[in-house]
User: Fold this.
Amino acid sequence: MSGHKYTLKITAHDNIGVIVRIAQVFARRGHSIETLNVVRDDEHDTLPVLYITAYGNKTRIDQIVAQIKKLVDIATVTLNEEQDG
Amino acid sequence: MSSKSNPEELDGAQALIKALEQQGVEYIFGYSGGAAIPIFDAIVTTDTKIQLIQTRHEQGATHMADGYARVTGKPGVVLVTSGPGAGNTVTGLMTAHMDSVPIIVLSGQQITPMLGLDAFQEADIFNITMPVVKHNYLVTSTNEIVHTVHQAFAIATTGRPGPVLIDIPKDVSSGMFTATVAPPAQKPAALIAQKPTPTSTDIAYVQNALTSAKRPVILAGHGVLIAGAHAELRQLAQVFDTPVTTTLLGKGAMDEHDDLSLGMLGMHGTAYANKAIINADLILNIGSRFDDRIIGQPDAFATNATKIHVDIDDSEFNKMITVDAAIRADAREFILALLATNTSATHAPWRATIQTFKDNYPLGVDATGQLTQQEVLQAIHAETDGNSIMATDVGQHQMWAAQFYKVRSPDTWISSGGAGTMGFGLPAAIGAQFGHPDAQVVSLSGDGGFQMTLFELATAALYKLPIKIVILDNHYLGMVRQWQELFFDNRMSGVDLEGNPDFVKLAESYGMPALHITDRSRLKEQVAEAFAYTDGPIVLHCEVGKTDNVYPMVPAGRPLEHMLTEAPTEKLEKPTGST
Ligand SMILES: Cc1ncc(C[n+]2csc(CCOP(=O)(O)OP(=O)(O)O)c2C)c(N)n1
Assistant:
C-alpha cells in the first residue's frame, strides 16, 4: 500500500452490476480497493451510498474518480484524503 | 412464454422493433441463432421498414454498424444470438468504444430462469462487455424493452458517443409486451442539442492566447467531427491564421488540401506537422485525447508550448498531458464562441516557417523498385480527388493512406484508431456504403487484415455494393515486420503471409470482378477501370514492395524530436515508453 489513503463517497443508481462497474475502474488499472461499504436509507428513498477507501497517488486516484463519474449509473463522486494518524 | 391471442398485441421482440423504428433505424446488421430467433422473427412479423442486412460473421456486423455510424452520425444497430454470437461482438464493441462511435448491439440470451446455470449458449455478455461499452443492459422484464432501447440510443449518441449493448433473454423477447410503445421521452435531436458550452472567461483566455502567440497550432481530433464543427474549424484557422494538424481520427476535420492543413501528426504523421508541434508556442487541442501515438513521450511533448485542451469529456483532462487550460465544451460550441469574439490574428513569419518545413520535408515516394503502396494511394487520390469515403484497415497501408490520401470532407475517412483493429476495413466500408448508398466507397486493406474479415465479400456481393476493395499485398504483416526490422535486428517471427490465396480467384468465386495490379505503368489505367465499374464490388489486388517501411516514424514512446524521416543508419533502441 503506497501513497495516501483516500475515501471515495459515491452515490449510485441501484442498477444491476453497478458495483462491478466501479470495481472494474480500479481493477483495469491494477489498483486495489481497501474497503467497501454500502449504505442505504430506505426511509428517505435516497440513492445508495458507497464508501470506498483506496491507497494511491493523487494523479491516479483523480483519474479513477474521473472515470467513475463517467459511468452512466453513477450520480456523484466526492473524494476525501484521509489525514495521517 | 405466453402466446398471443390478439393479433394487435405485441411480444417483446415486436415491441423492440417498434422502438427501433421510433429511433429512425434503417438497418440491422445481424447474424441469427437460437436465443435471437424471436427478434429475427419480429423483423418479419412487424412489417417494418427496417432492413435486415445478413452478414457472415458477428464481428463483421459490428464493424458494419460502426462504419455506418461514422459516416452518418446515427447509431448502427447489430443483432446477434447469445454465447458465441455475442462473444464475437467484443472486438467490434471495443473498436467502437476506443473511437467513440455510437453502435447498439442487441444480443439474444438464455431464458432468465437459466441465467447463471451454464445453460446452452449462455455467455455472461453483460459482464464480459462492461469494460468495452459506454453502457450495457441486461433486460429482465419484457415491459422494460422499449424504455431500455430509448435510453440506450440517448446514451450512445450524447456527450462523448459510444457503444451500448442490450442483452435480451429469450423469455423476455418472447413474453407479452403489455406497456405502451412510448416514443423516446426526449427526441434524439433534443438530447443531442444538450451540449456543454465554454464560459466567457475560457473564451477570453483562448482568444488572448491565440492573438499573442507567435507560433500557434490547432490540433483537431475526432471531437471536431463528432460535433460537426469542420466548417467552423476552417473559419477559426483562417481568422486566427493558424495551421491545423489532425489526429488519425480527425482526418477530414479540415480539408487536407488547404494551405493551413498540416495533415496528421504523430508516430507516422507528416514531418511538417511534427515539426510544427515541436516548435509551437501554443497548442490548442480541440477534441483529441492526446493519444500516445501522437504525443510520443508525454513529459517531452511540446515543452515550449502553452497547451489548451478542449474536450466534451473532462476525464481526458490532464490524463496524458498536463495542460495550462482545460475547457469542457462541445467542439462546435467552443469554436462558435471563439468566432463570436470577432477577433483575428496574423502569424506571417510562422506561416513562412511552416512553408519551409513543408518544402524541406515533403512526403516522399521511391518509385524505382517494385510498385509501392504510396503510388497506389496517389493513383486512388488522383482518381477520386479525395472525395471518396475511404475505409482503411490497420497497418502500414493505413499509415500511408493517412499520409497520401488527402481527405476533403468530414466523415469520409474511416479508420480504427484507438483499437487498431485488423479486419475493420472491409466491413466498415460495407456499413459506410449502406449509410451513403450514392457515395463512392473505397475499402483499403493489407493482405493480413483483409483475410480477417474477407468473408464479408459475400455481403458486399449479395447487396451489390459498388465498393472498390483494394488489397495492398506485401505478403507480410508489414507493420510488424517493420518493427522487427528496426527494433529486433530484422528477426522475422510470425509475419510471413505464405499461404495467401489467389485474391483474384477468390473475388471471382464470390462473383465479383478483380484486377491484378503490379505494374506502375498500367496503374493509372487499371485504377480508372476499377472506378468506372459500378455494378457491384470490384477487387483491386495490388502486389507491392515487400519490405518498404513507413516514414516518417517516431519510435513509440520517444519525443517527437526523435522522428526519423528516412531509414535510420544506426540500430534503434527497443521502444519502452509505449507499445
Ligand atoms: C486483430 C489484430 N491482430 C493483430 C494486430 C497487430 N498488427 C498491427 S499491424 C499488423 C500487420 C498488418 O498487416 P497487413 O494487414 O498485411 O497490413 P500491412 O501492415 O502490411 O500494410 C499487425 C499484425 C492488430 N492490429 N489487430
